[in-house]
Fold these 2 entries.
Entry 1:
Amino acid sequence: MKNKYSIFSLIKNAFSNHENWQRAWRDPEPKKEYDAVIVGGGGHGLATAYYLAKKHNLTNIAVVEKGWIGGGNTGRNTTIIRSNYLWDASAGLYDHALKIWEGLSQELNYNVMFSQRGVMNLAHNLQDVRDLKRRTHANRLNGIDAVWLETDEVKKFCPIINTSQDIRYPVLGGTLQKRAGTARHDAVAWGYARGADEMGVDIIQNCEVKGIKRNGDSVEGLETTKGFIKTKKIGVVAAGHSSVIANMAGLKLPLESKPLQALVSEPVKPIIDTVVMSNAVHAYVSQSDKGELVIGAGTDSYVSYTQKGSFNIVEETLKAILELYPIFSRMKMLRQWGGIVDICPDASPIISKTSIKGLYFNCGWGTGGFKATPGSGDLFAHTIANDEPHKLNAAFNINRFVSGDLVDEHGAAAVAH
Amino acid sequence: MFLINCPYCGERDQSEFISGGEAHIARPKQPTELNDDQWAEYLFMRKNIKGIQFERWNHAHGCRKWFNVARDTSNDKIEKIYKMGEQPPKL
């Protein structure tokens, strides 16, 4: 049983110089056999394991992770959470996640620092205005809080934005979702890991999957760097490396893996208390609790697994940031990094069974998976436990690329997600 | 971020080029005879290889010509550049 985190445990441990905190999760060796194995110890994978144990009583399960948990895209994203998607299927999926976010810290007894500071999406031309107004209406029909802001309201909500009509891409208005915001990404992975571990889930780090053993049309187990693990159900949540795992099972996915970059500035005093995204000029910015500006750039156009990305992508984003926020012109950037995102042709995820019995994929989140972490884990756990999708992820099956029933958010979403 | 040796213009920065994705995906000769699975395979399914991948590139901000590249996607190293219509090299 884990000790409960509280103000009292904090005070108590302060007296012993924080040297006696209980370990948050074990470091077990893999057993020979599990009822199910999750491949990938990021936020989505750990959430899947957590909900499999909590809601479906599957506790003889493991999460295998080739590096350390939360070291991939969970630790590399810009932590934006919103649910203002255009299509009904997407709105259902992302708002399901947002509702879980709202009570997640309490549920996990782990402060994920979920902050509903609002997300504003800017319009810079007439088509942006039309698209964003349409999306606002669609959101409201789906019960998602979204409002349209005129230029002066944008300025009032975030005073540091340059709303001069003389700049190259003037601000013509924007949408605002007040329930949207940010969370602390590492805490999400650690909170789910701690919760899953408490229910008996084995979290096995430094354990890379090398092969998937099949017996005809069903799976038998996994070859890993820590030996063979027998299991009848494998849930793959490997983000950028999903295609690599799929190839091991002889499957092909409709994915391309590309580097996506982000960067943070030196820490400064509070200057921007919301998240502002701009689709047309591809710039989004928020401020972390440490005071760093968190800036998201775009993806490279080519397939790459390098976790780097090109300088010209960062350059373009910073040009846009400087035009919109002249106040940042003397700001120094501290760090830049890349993560590998797996992008579907319709820019919507896949949470689905496959043609191989016992093999499930949760992938294709592209550039915007973090916001969906709790919902994705919940729905993927449902899909694995029942061998059937939940009604909220039924549209996100892999067969949509055969039937043509795509969930086309590519041109319709706020920013490149 | 890397340099690409355009077979027509010489070595230039990657930002001058546009990636056309996986190479050697032939357009179906008899499109009307394809079933949905075959269409999905042609349109959407990609190898997305970590390692040496054959790709099409276009020198969009240069000669605007297409050509093929064999590139290691795990480190962005270009192994071979060859023209459209040529068979992929054995690497």
Entry 2:
Amino acid sequence: MTLDGWILILVFIALVAAIARPLGLYLEAVFAARRTLLSAVLAPVEDSFYRLAGVKADAEQDWKEYALAILAFSLVCTLALYGLLRVQGALPLNPQAFAGVAPNIAMNTAVSFVTNTNWQAYAGESTMSHLTQMAGLTVQNFLSAAVGIAVAIAFARGFARRGASTIGNFWVDMTRATIYVLLPISILLALIFIALGMPQTLAGALPATTLEGASQDIAVGPVASQIAIKMLGTNGGGFFNANAAHPFENTGPIVNLIQMLSIFAIGAGLTITFGRMVGDERQGWALLAAMGALFLIGTSVAYWAEAQASPALIAAGVEPSAPNMEGKETRFGAAASALFAAITTAASCGAVNAMHDSFSALGGMVPLTNILAGEVIVGGVGAGFYGILVFAILTIFVAGLMVGRTPAYLGKKIEARDVKLAMLAILASPLAILIGTALAASTEWGRAGVQDAGPHGFTEMAYAFASAAGNNGSAFGGLTATNTFYTYAQAAAMLIGRFLVIVPALAIAGNLAAKPVAPASAGAFPTTGPLFIGLLAFIIVIVGALTFFPALALGPLAEATADRLF
Amino acid sequence: MSDKAKPASLFDGAILRSAALDAFGKLSPLHMWRNPVMFATEMVAIYVTTLFVRDLFARGAETAFGGQIALWLWLTVWFAAFAEAVAEGRGKAQAASLRRARSELMARRLVGGAPQPPTAASDLKIDDVVEVVAGELIPADGEVVEGVATVDESAITGESAPVIREAGGDRSAVTAGTRVLSDRIVVRVTAAQGSTFLDRMIALVEGAARKKTPNEIALSVLLAGLSLIFVLAVVTVPAFASYAQGHVSVIALAALFIALIPTTIGGLLSAIGIAGMDRLVRFNVLATSGRAVEAAGDVDVLLLDKTGTITLGDRQAVAFIPGPGVSERELADAAQLASLSDETPEGRSIVILAKDRFDMRGREMAPTHAKFVPFTAQTRMSGVDIDGTRIRKGAVESILQFASVQNGASHAPADVRRAAEAIAREGGTPLAVARNGQVLGIVHLKDVVKGGVKERFAELRRMGIRTVMITGDNALTAAAIAAEAGVDDFLSEAKPEDKLALIRKEQAEGKLVAMCGDGTNDAPALAQADVGVAMQTGTPAAREAGNMVDLDSDPTKLIEIVSIGKQLLMTRGSLTTFSIANDVAKYFAIIPAMFAVLYPGLGLLNIMGLSSPQSAILSAIIFNAIIIPLLIPLALKGVAWRAAPAGQLLARNLSIYGLGGLIAPFLGIKAIDVIVSALHLA
């Protein structure tokens, strides 16, 4: 480990904290429908959308209507994207003349992008036309992120409102998230990326002659515009198969840092937005602090593990040089690779600038545990926020009892129905991950895709299902997930991980919104202090640990404790 | 907790014996069904038992091990049933003594004023009118409509001093099974047989009428949810292991599942609830539902009547303020003389104050030919004439007039008037004393705040509970007493409807309000309050309106009721935390035992150094089982509670039950493993 490495990690955390507040305040203003800097330009645009769609902006929905709108919207998006993928061969902007995508891959991809997972069972540069990348995938990068933000805002309203029957209007929240938040920031980011050397063109691949005289196609395309939202919306689906390790997709250390910051920006900002909405900003900072504590622990372990020499080199009798550089870009090195891996898995983004499969056993366990923790360490845009609040509800329930009160969070009593819904939301991802991994591990369909033997191969499968259910989308690597089993099982995991959390979360919001707010008293313990932050972090860890201990034991732990390499 | 409640032995032999038997009856799946965690445990126990029986015939390799696991699983279920039975047994013991009081009650009805032949009390209907004379038991809950009598209510209150029950007013309620000691009363029956106060009380303490409370339901949901997660975690293990070309024994899986699901809190949950109710009953408070007990823990605002709760209820002399040219001793001497025959609390307090301050003893008055002048509403003073010296004490204006008449001239010392006004301003009552024509000074009478209440209110404030004093006094007096007692707020010149309005206002702000009351005019407020404690001495209307009845009629008990409610919730939370924290150690025992065959490196996870895989699994299961009976005393007594800010309470309970829950099983399982391997059990 080097001082430079630690400085990078700490500077990153400081920058996230610095971004969170202004962005959070801006988000709060946008969703409270107050005028912002951009209103003069965008308000007419917004209104014209509502007129076109026949949406009454001030007609609010109860949680069922809100959830139904999301489900219907997501279904239509999935079908539309599936259609586009299948027929892209007959459509324009296809300079490489790619054929339509196979049904199982198309279905997997459609579900993946609509659920904000962006698991890629394909290589972008050799499968997708420019039209598909732009009008299909990039559009979903925006919309799936906007859905996440909308749910987060609706959930926060559940706490902010009292005696209310509605939690907002999905169409309005989704529209505002897209045109006031995602689009302007993405445009800004894309311009910065272009300035820093990222390609943005509609031309086809460039033919090149290598030094050996062979000819080679160098893929280019509208990269910058897709990468901006890929990071900002925690989508993670790369333009290129190598994702953020590709020099066109991640042109250097500065772009790398900006990309890492954009992954966390909205997720961190939403906690502050929440604090402002419930009238106490510290409540938001407390959630962010719990996320930050877990993040710092994971990142430190990953960096420590990756700063060690590769055990493979030691075993081969080669004079090893630390750090472990297998699967890493020399441009980034151990610290930036470990940090990126921790960020992308903590935040349910899934972009990678190094191959997680090549991390050491413990280093690779960090991305996996980040995902298994429920994607709440900042988490996916919106999803991480409502995810951590579900954990906060459980924390409050147990802690509240321990101080001798029926538990209340932010003045809202946590009752049987809330606990039931919270447990349902928490059950979703273990259900998909454990059942999915069990099917993969015990069937020929599943084992067929595994590259490595022993516990490492097991980790590859577990990671794949964790990534899908956590709507992360990053691949551990090593696994070939294009067969029928994986494409469909992964799609199911993605849907469960997305909608079996969103629907209970909205139900909780509806339930809470209707409740009165009890004033804070000395009898209720403060949910802003270090005690609550620590307890929340601990509950997240212990729920994850208790759920996945057997899987972790047979995967990374077995590998780490073994006296041979797998 | 309470210094009044008799510290009943937790392990009364008779209760334990009958509980041990009752526990077998509770093993019925139909009964267990109500408790998902224990139901799951029982199902697994049945499954492991059938495996054991099969192995017995098939001579399987794991027969002895499977048999022991099955045994301990059954013990786990039985321990949980036993915990519930013990809690119920303690209530039943109390119910039995109540029931004796109810047996064989006879009633003499009056129809149109004419007595009827005696009938069994069970034949009485609501609105029947019965006559009860000295020596008889009151046959049914009711209201005195005629007469006044002393009644021995010790059967239900445990208080041996008889109480007065009379028609009209706020002391008209009588309870079935109590004995009339003097006089004759006519009682109108207000509760049908089977739903009398005594019936409800018996049902509640026996646990028969116990419904799950809202918080208990929420906690059960949490526990069931956790169990479901563990179902997933365990059923997927064989598939995971198959990838490593391994096999995991079903018995080990069953053991892992039971070790993980929260059996500790699941097994003790209903015992905690029953014990909470029981603690209340031991405290001579009856709750009509467990819900009310829980609500008590959440109370934000306490409404307390001033008289009897905050103050002693009688004004007491606290100071002698002499007039010009009079010594304090002289004034005290005169005041004492004037009060010697005054049997009112005020008079007695003057005698006592003089004695305390100047060591003046009550004197032998006979030789002095003293003639006592009693207080009358016309003169508004009392006193004594001794050999021509006329000493009077009384209302300031009356005494001044008395003095001026004696004096022959209007003589009102300005200092005395000022002192009297100052006392009135502070909420006290000035009492002037005159000897012949001379006004000697003022005795300061005041509503004395009960000893220790200030500390208790400070305690409540630390708990986050606001106290509001209700009084009929004027604002000035109320403010003075409020300041002295340390209440947070007061409602002066309060009428019953003001109380109701205040409760509604606090509730509109989202607060939970507790109050106590006894009069019929308190009934609406009692019904409106989240926790309404009616006094046993109160009217039937008040008792029906409240959700608790205090048999001792002691309004300060609200404070204990609140702490019992809090303790109940805290016990649940702490044991839940303990139960979940235990899982970490159990994983570290069982996972290496299951997987070290597949990957020997995982033996590193056996940080406890358990002797063999089978011994590790067996030790974890034994720990899981015996922790239940070990925690029964805690479940019944409740975790220690003291008034402190929530943050401190949480930190304390987390360190004891969270951290303790992490560490304890590591030590416990290791110790059990040492014994298990020494005995060659596995």
